[in-house]
Amino acid sequence: MNQASFTGFDGFIETGFEQRFQRLLRQAWQARTWHVIVAEPGSGKSMGIRDLVQTYAHGRDSIGGRNYPLLAVTAPKNDPKEQALGNHILLAMDFPTRGRWSDRKYTLLYLFRQYKVECLIIDDAHDLSLQHLIFLKEITDQLRLPPLDHALGLCLVTAGWGDTMPLKEIFDKPETMWIQFRRRLDRVQPYCRIAGHTQEEVRAILEAVERVYQPSFPDLNLCKWTGAIHTWLTHPLLDPQNSGRVIMDNLMRLVMTALEWTYAKGERDVTPQTWDAAAELLTLRRDAIRVIDAPAPKELSPEQKDETKKKSPKRKTRSQANSAEVNGDLQPKVGE
């Protein structure tokens, strides 16, 4: 089989993590509450946001056929100006970003109400600047006033390891601005951490992947490796906080690597040797540097070497060449 023809799975799986994450986003949407949500990088936050927004994007009618009950944007990178965040919001609603920002800024108030935006989700919110946060508070405060009277839920989705809670240090400042912002956070769940996958949840994911790839691997049985996979993926290098939970990105990297190698060898199921090699690649060799160089020259067989010697012309030594030149000088030239 051709290894290049193997296609990795990039669809959405409703894992235990996604259920917890999306449930909180729906609660914020329905109750118009504000939350700071953190999970480890690679957990599946962005994919969960995308799936939820796509599910409810066309759930209601609106003028012009557009409706955004859940509006999701990614925080601007390396651009602290409020205009950068405003432009991201306009682009998410398919509106142009031309013109003076001072005019377009307050157009957002009309657009939020006109297109029934009920919850704003900002991914990678740890990249938000102070200006971005002040802009969010200003816009949402304006929306709450008559005649708009439009409450907006807000979910700031961040990435973080261990016990860190991004943005909390900002909201804990004593200035009036941050006191007011902090008071707008949900009373019961202002800061939320979404836990990774348990061993049983890993088994459920393996069952889903197994169903997807059953046609390519008739004897595929991923579930019997649940315990070993959970042990590999809670290795201290992958789980430095010793949480005992598995990150989706690490799980899919391990499984897809093992399946790709199995497919290349034309085997019907993943062998223990393949699992060991894939786990070692993800843990002990994850920082290894591969040197990409020209291919080594092929070693010629003895028959090829003999053939090459026969075909190659014999080289004259320097003494032979000098002797030929002297003898050539003594020969009479034509016409003499």
What does this structure look like?
With 336 residues, this protein is α/β, with parallel strands linked by helices. It folds into 2 domains: 16-193, P-loop containing nucleotide triphosphate hydrolases (Rossmann fold, 3-Layer(aba) Sandwich); 197-282. Helix content is 46%, strand content 8%. A 5-stranded parallel sheet has the order 2-3-4-1-5. Helix 5 links the parallel strand 3 and strand 4 (153-159). The protein is elongated and about 95 Å long. 26% of the residues are buried.
Question: What distinguishing features does this structure have?
Answer:
2 domains; 336 residues; elongated; alpha/beta; single chain; disordered C terminus; five-stranded parallel sheet
Number of separate domains: 2
- Which fold name is given in CATH as the topology of the largest domain? Rossmann fold
According to CATH, what is the class of the largest domain? Alpha Beta
Helix content: 40-55%
Count of helical regions: 13
Task: Please outline what is shown here.
The chain has 13 helices and five strands.
Q: Could you outline the blueprint of secondary structure elements for this entry?
A:
Blueprint: H1 16-31, E1 34-39, H2 45-56, E2 70-74, H3 82-92, H4 101-114, E3 119-123, H5 130-144, E4 153-159, H6 168-171, H7 176-184, E5 191-193, H8 199-213, H9 226-233, H10 248-264, H11 272-282, H12 302-311, H13 318-330
Parallel strand pairs: 1-4, 1-5, 2-3, 3-4
